[in-house]
């Protein structure tokens, strides 16, 4: 199971890694995605369950983040209910494994040079809303960098969480090292990797007295396949179950409590899977609206100004006296991380991305009131 991407190069890299995973005798290997690419997980499980009596599902994810903790178990539960005669086993994510640590250092080491004491290392993770997964990145970074003689180590995130790569570059450059290695802990290239490359290039142009280099993703390193095979083997033996001691969906960890509890966790995951599958409009218990607008209030979109979009849209509709028939609702992640703020208009099925406060007037007047799509902002049309 992969995350999925709208970048065909990223999905091709994922499928190449799946193809390189040589099955044992009599085994077949399939792939599926959580979102943004086909086949989706539910569909792939259904098809595989018709052909096989034993299924091993392995998440090709670096850490055990919400997709693995919630979306995956819910999908498997649905498949088990439909196919009670089939055995489903689920492996853990790749995690902080010695082979993954070695693979990551190999990507970094080619850039260190002869004097590591003048090299600053920045480890960049994708970023998650789950503090457990974010904490694993810090653990991995320490295990990779410990006693390497580096000038400094910093950890940051490409989105959702803090600090950002820009913050880390500022800190590292102030120490005046000879070089800064930006090391994305990512399996594949794609839009996130391209974003990190652009940020690094921009900062390098601003600070030419320091060399800046960006290391490569991990996917084609033998250590990834070795870890994957070990995780699958553990699942077949009934080992390597998902960790729950620090799972925010099971235990109240720090200040993160809004998703805790069995039923609440289940509902959170179901809502998440529905929004990512871009489901058709559902029946509401309230009086029908002429329009229902969803504005993403997840971390990445908030950083890009989604709350200003939401507030401005509500204010303008109220001034026009249309707030009772056109409702504006804040929602969780809608799968447009890095491309938001995301705004969806139902029942029209229009998905906008990159919507900023300056665009609100056009969305309200042209689309919500005038029934004319704002073409420059359209991401998808679910007709």
Detail the topology: elements first, then pairings.
Elements (H helix, E strand, L loop, with lengths): L7 H13 L20 H11 L2 E4 L8 H17 L4 E4 L7 H12 L9 E7 L5 H15 L6 E6 L7 H10 L4 E6 L6 H16 L4 E4 L7 H15 L25 H15 L14 E6 L2 H5 L2 H14 L6 E6 L11 E4 L3 E3 L7 H10 L8 E4 L2
Parallel strand pairs: 1-2, 3-4, 3-5, 5-6, 7-8
Antiparallel strand pairs: 7-9, 9-10, 10-11
The global form is globular
Largest sheet: 5 strands, mixed
Terminus-to-terminus distance:
28 Å
Which stretches of 5+ consecutive residues score pLDDT under 50? 277-284
DSSP strand tally: 11
The chain-level structural class is: alpha/beta
Q: How does this structure look, described?
A:
The chain is α/β, with parallel strands linked by helices and 383 residues long. The protein contains twelve helices and eleven strands. Strand 3 (119-125), helix 5 and strand 4 form a beta-alpha-beta unit. Helix 2 (41-51) packs across helix 3 (66-82), helix 3 (66-82) crosses helix 9 and helix 4 crosses helix 5. The relative contact order is 0.11. Residues 277-284 have low confidence and may be disordered.
């Amino acid at each position: 199971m992969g995350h999925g991407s709208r970048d065909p190069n990223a999905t091709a890299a994922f499928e190449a890694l799946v193809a390189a995973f040589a099955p044992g005798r009599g085994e077949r290997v399939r792939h599926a995605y959580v979102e943004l690419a086909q086949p989706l997980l539910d569909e792939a499980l259904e098809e595989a369950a018709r052909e096989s009596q034993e299924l091993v599902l392995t998440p090709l994810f670096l850490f055990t983040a919400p997709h693995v903790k919630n979306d995956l178990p819910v999908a498997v539960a649905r498949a088990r209910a439909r196919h009670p005669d089939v055995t489903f086993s689920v492996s853990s994510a790749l995690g902080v494994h010695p082979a993954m640590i070695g693979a990551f250092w190999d990507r970094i080491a080619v850039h260190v040079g002869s004097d590591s004491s003048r090299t600053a290392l920045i480890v960049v993770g994708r970023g998650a809303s789950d503090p457990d997964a974010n904490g694993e990145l810090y653990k991995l970074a320490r295990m990779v960098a410990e006693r390497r003689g580096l000038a400094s180590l910093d950890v940051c995130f490409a989105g959702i969480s803090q600090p950002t790569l820009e913050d880390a570059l500022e800190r590292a450059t102030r120490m005046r090292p000879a070089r800064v290695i930006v090391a994305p802990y990512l399996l594949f290239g794609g839009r996130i990797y391209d974003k990190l490359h652009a940020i690094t290039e921009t900062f390098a142009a601003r600070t030419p007295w320091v060399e800046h280099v960006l290391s490569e993703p991990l996917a084609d390193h033998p250590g990834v396949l070795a870890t994957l095979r070990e995780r699958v083997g553990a699942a077949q033996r009934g080992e390597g179950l998902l960790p729950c001691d620090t799972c925010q969906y099971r235990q109240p960890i720090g200040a993160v409590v809004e998703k805790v509890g069995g039923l609440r966790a289940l509902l959170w995951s179901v809502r998440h899977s529905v929004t990512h599958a871009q489901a058709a409009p559902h029946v509401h218990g309230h009086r029908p609206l002429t329009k229902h607008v969803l504005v993403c209030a997840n971390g990445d979109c908030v950083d890009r100004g989604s709350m200003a979009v939401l507030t401005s849209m509500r204010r303008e509709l109220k001034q026009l006296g249309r707030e009772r028939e056109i409702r504006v609702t804040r929602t969780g992640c809608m799968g447009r991380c890095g491309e938001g703020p995301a705004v969806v208009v139902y029942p029209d099925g229009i998905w906008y991305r990159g919507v900023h406060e300056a665009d609100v007037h056009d969305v309200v007047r042209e689309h919500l009131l005038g029934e004319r799509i704002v073409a420059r902002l359209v991401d998808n049309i679910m007709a």
